[in-house]
């Protein structure tokens, strides 16, 4: 059994290491974090685009100072039109720099650090495909839900919920949609847009700096997958352990049974010629009388005429047991043989047949000797 427990412990350690590794990978994939800066290292390639109110005759302008390690722009909003606007976009692109749509449905928030001089209220929006409206040739047909954030001359951390942006009323009215139709999808996003708001200072050269732009999300699929893995792996390990433990226990019990049988000569006991008369008498007497429930050391002394001290000394020298220890060994070994070979016999019958009148005491001694109860031993041997 020791070898089995060593193998089981090694297997358990390997499975534990594997579970930790798989768990780490699944958690990494469950809690998503994607940095858009520095631009050259982003997993989602993008390029900058500036926008404004020139389409309506406005004069608002944007100048990009840095778009690699940070998004650093100078912005000036002009009041030449009713609704002035200026923006800088992160337009997603492929390896060749061509515009493409990306799936951001696994992300729930966007975070960044912002600094503005002077203080400003800016907008964040995204351009997403609306299956019912969007025309790839018309930028205004992309749904652009948005949110607002404040910034000043001190760096501040901003986090916006991508799933709770508001679609502008003018856009819904432009495409004759109900004002209640504010749902949008993030599975086809063309760009992220940082721009001015109606509360941005006008006719002022404003500097806007954005750092550490990152997307965050959760994909529970991998945690579910990890749960299935744990259930199958540890459930399979438990089933394997139970089966292998049963087999190892059966093998161990049979080995011990075979090993102990030489101690019990039954009626075919043969004594080596070199053994003396007293040794011969002791071993033969115990081999034939062990099943007598009344057998004790005093009765043996009176029957064979050997002192109790000498009986214990001979048994200790020959077999390594005292009288009581060897008597129990004989009885329990015979009980194990009967349990293995006599399927119809019950535990009490076998206990009585080997010299035990108290079944509970027999069960206790048997479990100490073989590591399991007689009932379990019997069921294992009959498998």
What this model shows, in words?
With about 375 residues, this protein is of the alpha+beta class. The chain is built from 10 helices and 11 strands. The strands form 2 sheets. Strands 1, 3, 4, 6, 9 and 11 form a 6-stranded antiparallel β-sheet that branches. The protein is rod-shaped. It starts with a helix and ends with a helix.
Properties at a glance:
single chain; 10 helices; alpha+beta; 11 strands; 22% strand; 6-stranded antiparallel β-sheet; 383 residues
Gyration radius from CA atoms, angstroms: 43 Å
Count of helical stretches: 10
Number of strands: 11
Please state the average pLDDT score.
88
Secondary-structure-based class equals alpha+beta
- The sequence of SSEs as H and E is HEEEEEEEEEHEEHHHHHHHH
- Relative strand content: 15-25%
- Helix content percent band: 40-55%
Low-confidence stretches: 265-274
The largest sheet, given as strand count, sense and whether it forms a barrel, is: 6 strands, antiparallel
Question: Between the first and last Cα atoms, what is the distance in angstroms?
Answer: 18 Å
Shape: rod-shaped
């Amino acid at each position: 059994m020791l070898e089995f427990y060593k193998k089981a412990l090694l297997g358990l350690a390997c499975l534990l290491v594997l579970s930790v590794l798989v768990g780490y990978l699944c958690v990494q994939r469950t809690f998503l974090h994607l940095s858009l800066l520095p631009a050259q290292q982003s997993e989602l390639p993008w390029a900058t685009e500036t926008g404004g109110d020139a389409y309506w005759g406005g004069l608002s302008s944007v100048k990009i100072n840095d778009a690699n390690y940070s998004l650093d722009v100078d912005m000036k909003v002009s009041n030449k039109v009713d609704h002035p606007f200026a923006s800088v976009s992160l337009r997603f692109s492929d390896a060749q720099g061509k515009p493409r749509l990306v799936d951001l449905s696994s992300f729930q928030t966007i975070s960044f650090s912002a600094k503005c001089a002077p203080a400003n209220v800016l907008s964040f929006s995204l351009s997403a495909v609306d299956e019912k409206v969007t025309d790839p040739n018309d930028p205004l047909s992309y749904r652009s839900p948005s949110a607002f954030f404040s910034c000043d001359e001190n760096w501040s951390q901003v986090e916006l919920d991508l799933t709770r942006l508001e679609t502008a009323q003018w856009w819904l009215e432009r495409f004759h949609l109900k004002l209640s139709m504010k749902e949008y999808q993030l599975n086809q996003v063309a760009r992220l847009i940082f721009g001015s708001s109606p509360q941005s200072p006008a006719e002022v050269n404003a500097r806007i700096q954005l750092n550490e732009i990152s997307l965050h999300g959760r994909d529970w699929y991998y945690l579910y997958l990890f749960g299935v893995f744990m259930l199958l792996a540890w459930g399979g390990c438990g089933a394997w352990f139970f089966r292998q433990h049963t087999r190892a226990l059966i093998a161990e019990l049979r080995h011990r049974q075979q090993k102990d049988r030489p101690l019990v000569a039954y009626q075919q006991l043969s004594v080596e010629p070199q053994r003396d008369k007293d040794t011969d008498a002791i071993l033969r007497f115990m081999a034939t009388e062990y099943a007598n429930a009344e057998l004790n050391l005093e009765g043996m002394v009176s029957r064979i005429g050997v002192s109790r001290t000498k009986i214990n000394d001979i048994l200790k020298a020959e077999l390594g047991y005292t009288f009581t220890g060897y008597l129990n060994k004989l009885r329990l070994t015979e009980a194990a043989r009967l349990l293995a070979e006599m399927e119809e016999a019950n535990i009490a019958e076998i206990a009585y047949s080997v010299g035990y009148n108290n079944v509970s005491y027999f069960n206790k001694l048997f479990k100490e000797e073989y590591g399991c109860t007689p009932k379990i031993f019997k069921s294992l041997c009959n498998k």
